[in-house]
Write a structure and sequence with these properties.
Blueprint (H helix, E strand, L loop, with lengths): L4 E4 L3 H12 L4 E4 L4 H6 L5 E2 L1 H9 L4 H6 L1 E3 L1 E6 L2 E6 H5 L3 E3 L2 H13 L5 E2 L3 E6 L7 E5 L5 E5 L2 E4 L7 H7 L3 E17 L7 E4 L6 E7 L2 E8 L10 H12 L10 E16 L2 E2 L2 E3 L5 E2 L7 H22 L3 H28 L5 H16 L1 H12 L6
Parallel strand pairs: 1-2, 1-12, 2-8, 5-14, 12-19
Antiparallel strand pairs: 3-7, 4-7, 5-6, 9-10, 10-11, 13-16, 13-17, 14-15, 15-16, 17-20, 18-19
The structure holds adenosine-5-diphosphoribose and P-hydroxybenzoic acid.
Length: 389
């Protein structure tokens, strides 16, 4: 088999890259080691920045998002006795959208399978080879068990945190930075209308809580818990009781409903540099992870592949390497901005048990809720800084 760009991984990064390249007349093949059903069932975060919505719309995969997604004009920041709304359009002229990443993935898969570039599920033994040459290849075993070779001009490693691409880049030298936060999130999906119009990020002495949503009838809620927490120890009643305590506010009530999914998520930051070795380019979770507090994971993946698509088009259509040469540095600048913002939100909102830290957090929350300059800084980062392609 031969293609221009071999793409490893059919998460949002790989699928959107394939779509953006196809729109510019560049061929690709996407290789995914899981089944379509598995990929479409994975529950992930759900906030899209303005530029993510614009990119998906321009790529022709934004119709259902525009129909079913919920445009949000702000968030609430809460600490005991106070729930304050940050009004994003007033602060920075932008909005965000609530639309599950799972739905973004489904839309991209549907479009791809309806006449788009090949997308092969359930492949195994994927190995990128000869990435230091201009004709790299990917070896893999297809779903029927046949050994295959995909000859390419370039390879995109969009295979997530546990993929095979990042180790190949790091073998040639590189660096990683990591921060493991001393807490985790317990997330639930529940069949109940959201009890709030905007997301609530709540600081509480017992720990952080987040009220998010997926639709007018489905809520997504999170509780800060300790990293070693066993999900079996959290009955639905215990979860709802803790949520009610942490979101408590006079005159407001949390509606409860049937819990349809629950899991414990680790909180960590990870950055791997460079995001390129020769003709192998990393994008999305393959190169970086952010804690979910800033809602940046998917948005960063979209920003990466927007830069990468433009760079690959320039390389493969015009034989000019300027954009691929600067790709890693330009992508990493945004990665570190989002890593900082995610760290800022995480550190401001999660309790550590230390009384001094708690006073600093409350002081920062009061500052963001009373100073327009401090609120604007948060709003600009949350809604997404402009992407300089
Ligand atoms: N071969 C082929 N595919 C692989 C391999 C492999 N060796 N290893 C992993 N994959 C696939 C995974 O099964 C997954 O479908 O690569 C895909 C990577 O997708 P994601 O993990 O979703 O990563 P990405 O596309 O970068 O999405 C960005 O945003 O909200 C965040 O963490 C969240 O995953 C999300 C990310
Ligand atoms: C979600 O809806 O899953 C979600 C929303 C906002 C976040 C993190 C997760 O900051």
């Amino acid at each position: 088999m031969r293609t221009q760009v071999g793409i490893i991984g059919a998460g949002p990064a790989g699928l959107l890259l394939s779509r953006l390249l196809a729109l510019q007349g560049i061929d690709s093949v996407v290789l995914e080691n899981r089944s379509r059903a598995y990929v479409e069932a994975r529950i992930r975060a759900g906030i899209l920045e303005q530029h993510t919505v614009d990119t998906l719309t321009e790529a022709g995969v934004g119709d259902r998002l525009r129909r079913e997604g919920l445009e949000h004009h702000g968030i609430y920041l809460q600490y005991p006795g106070t729930r304050h709304k940050l009004d994003f359009p007033a602060l920075c002229g932008r909005t965000v959208w609530v639309y599950g990443q799972t739905e973004v993935t489904k839309d991209l898969i549907t479009t791809q399978l309806a006449g788009g570039p090949p997308l092969l599920f359930e492949v195994s033994d994927v190995i990128p080879e000869d990435v230091d040459t201009d004709s790299p290849r990917i070896r893999f075993t297809d779903a029927d068990g046949n050994a295959q070779v995909l000859e390419c001009d370039a390879i995109a490693g969009t295979d997530g945190f546990h993929g095979v691409s990042r180790p190949v880049v790091q073998q040639a030298g590189g660096r990683v930075w990591e921060r493991t936060y001393p807490y985790a999130w317990l997330g639930i999906l529940a069949d109940v209308a959201p009890s709030t119009d905007e997301l609530i990020y709540a600081w509480h002495p017992d720990g952080f809580a987040l009220h998010s949503m997926r639709s007018p009838s489905v809520s997504r809620l999170y509780l800060q818990v300790s990293p070693g927490e066993q999900i079996e120890d959290w009955s639905d009643d215990r979860i709802w009781d803790n949520l009610a305590t942490r979101f408590a506010l006079d005159g407001w009530e949390l509606c409860t409903g049937t819990v349809t999914d629950k899991s414990v998520l680790p909180m960590r930051s990870f950055v791997s540099a460079p995001m390129r070795r020769g003709r192998l380019f990393l994008a999305g979770d393959a190169a970086h992870i952010v804690p979910p507090t800033g809602a940046k994971g998917l948005n960063l993946a979209v920003a990466d592949v927007t830069l990468l698509a433009a760079a690959l088009v320039r390389l493969l259509r015009e034989q000019r390497s300027d954009l691929v040469d600067s790709y890693s540095d330009r992508a990493l600048a945004r990665v570190w901005r989002c890593t900082h913002f995610s760290w800022f939100m995480t550190s401001m909102l999660h309790t550590s048990g230390d009384a001094f830290d708690a006073e600093l957090q409350l002081s920062q929350l009061r500052r963001v809720c009373s100073s327009e300059a401090a609120a604007r800084e948060l709003a600009e980062n949350y809604t997404g800084l402009p992407l300089d392609v």
